[in-house]
Amino acid sequence: QVQLVESGGGLVQAGGSLRLSCAASGRTFSSYVMGWFRQAPGKEREFVACISRRGFRTYYEDFVKGRFTISRDNAKNTVYLQMNSLKPEDTAVYYCAAGSAYSGSGCLGGNDEYDYWGQGTQVTVSS
């Protein structure tokens, strides 16, 4: 098992930037595909981005392409989400997740691909 703790959320004006971090416990971090999801009040949790085990492949949902960047540092057991050009509609609780079942070389965006979830960090973008 793995425990995940997000940090870096906060209040930012539209057009600004935030960098989220997700620190993972354990010694098998590099065995997990990592993903970022978000959930706004009254809406379903949605996929944002994911990164493969070694960080060579990344995938993004269309609404964040060109604005967000996911990365990981396996030596630090940490995954990051750099968010630029933030919009009010980006306001949500952001969750990181770890998945062990995917056998491919990349990653997938389905909720059921991930086994472990962090507690979330609030991102609020004002207009």
Structure description:
The protein has 127 residues and is mostly beta strands. The chain has no helices and eleven strands. It has strands spanning 4-7, 10-13, 18-24, 33-39, 46-51, 58-60, 68-73, 78-83, 92-99, 116-117, 121-126. The strands form two sheets. Strands 2, 4, 5, 6, 9, 10 and 11 form a seven-stranded mixed sheet that branches. Strands 1-3-8-7 form a four-stranded antiparallel sheet, with no helix packed on it. Strand 4 and strand 5 form a beta hairpin. It is globular, with a radius of gyration of 14 Å.
List the helices and strands and how they pair.
Blueprint: E1 4-7, E2 10-13, E3 18-24, E4 33-39, E5 46-51, E6 58-60, E7 68-73, E8 78-83, E9 92-99, E10 116-117, E11 121-126
Parallel strand pairs: 2-11
Antiparallel strand pairs: 1-3, 3-8, 4-5, 4-9, 5-6, 7-8, 9-10, 9-11
